[in-house]
Design goal:
Blueprint: H1 6-18, E1 29-34, E2 37-43, H2 53-56, H3 59-62, H4 79-90, E3 98-101, H5 107-116, E4 120-123, H6 130-139, E5 142-145
Parallel strand pairs: 3-4, 4-5
Antiparallel strand pairs: 1-2, 1-3
Helix pairs in contact: 5-6
Length: 150
Amino acid sequence: MDRPSWDEYFLNITRQIALRSTCLRRKVGAIIVRDKHILTTGYNGAPKGLPHCDEVGCMRERGNVPSGERHELCRGLHAEMNAMLQAAYHGIRVSNATLYTTIHPCSLCAKMLINVGIERVVIEDDYPDNLAKCLFEEAGLKVICFGEGK
């Protein structure tokens, strides 16, 4: 019997979390893990208590905003943001942890991940945001890619 590696195991979990997403364009899941224990989870969607895009439509689609550009033109939070916010809300330290996500973080999330002390990012697929890649490289934050973006 082939057991998945820890990275494969946690990426599999991010795929399940992504199913909760209410984004009409891309369903993304993320988890923050330290010492092989899940600290928090997140998926992309509107702020707590507000209507989701699957209810009111997609601002980015209406505005023809290309993927990887103008992140502020969206009512939703990214999966990585929600995972970090969940940690803050519950008082959970995420420094020296690994973020697992179904897609490479954008530059907004990259800056936040660097500041909270994430030491490693494991992704399943790539995302067209070169600034995020440069920021991670400058910060010495290692990104490991499984899947199509290898």
